[in-house]
Amino acid sequence: MDYKKLTDEQIWKLISMGDRTAFGFVFKTFVKEFFKYGCKFTKDKALIEDVIQDTFVSLWKSKEKVKIEKSIKFYLITAFRRELIRRISAERKFDTIEDCADTYFIEHSYIDLLVQHQSSIQMNEDLTHALSQLTARQREAIYLKYFVELSYEEIAETLDMQVPSLYNLIMKAMKALKLSMKNEKLLVNLK
Q1: 80 near 37, Cβ under 8 Å?
Q2: CATH assignment of the domain containing 17
Q3: pLDDT, tens digit, for every residue of 73-100?
Q4: Are 145 and 99 in contact (CB under 8 A)?
Q5: pLDDT of residue 1
Q6: What's the sign of the alpha-carbon dihedral 81, 83, 84, 86?
Q7: Domain RNA polymerase sigma factor 70 region 4 type, which positions (predicted)?
């Protein structure tokens, strides 16, 4: 069966009826993306792998009870993020999710994706600097929107925000990026 041609609803129906092959397809489809996303929160690869594994095991165990109303990807990434932050918080004894989110960092592959069509090394450095000026929450929202390709509604739910607040967060982040990039270009031109 070609699972790529099925809708999320159809795949989930198969999984909820115990189709291990459909479940394996979902795992293979998202595991690398979730690992990469987890690396935004921690460098502990073993922890990320454990949380991914536990997220999928938990889903399999509760497959008959779980109702996936949006997308499988959205459901899984939300569950994965929640559990990863819970475990990081427990390890580091953070008081809030925001404290944990402050550890969110930019990896070079993330930057490379943003500037893949740019040949200039300077542009890459400018973008790295511009992204580092954003808050952790802004970087995460941009990542979820443009790289994980979640909808605004899904991102808002994942980040436990209202949709209008998310619009503002992303809009401010994009303005800050544009301004920072413009300022970097001015500095380079003055040299």
Answers
A1: yes
A2: 1.10.1740.10
A3: 988 988 999 899 888 887 776 445 555 4
A4: no
A5: 83
A6: positive
A7: 125-177
pTM for this predicted structure: 0.63
My answer on whether 77 and 119 are in the same domain is: no
| DSSP structural state of residue 66 | -
* Torsion angle of the four alpha carbons 132, 133, 137, 143, in this order, in degrees rounded to the nearest 10: -50
Please indicate, yes or no, whether residues 99 and 116 belong to a single structural domain of this protein: no
The maximal CA–CA distance of the chain, rounded, in angstroms, is: 65
How open is the CA angle 26-27-31, to the nearest 5 degrees? 125
Structure tokens at 55: 């997220």
Token output for 18 = 């115990």
Note whether 136 and 53 are same-domain residues.
no
Domain that holds residue 86: 1-105
The domain boundary residue, chosen from 105, 139, 158: 105
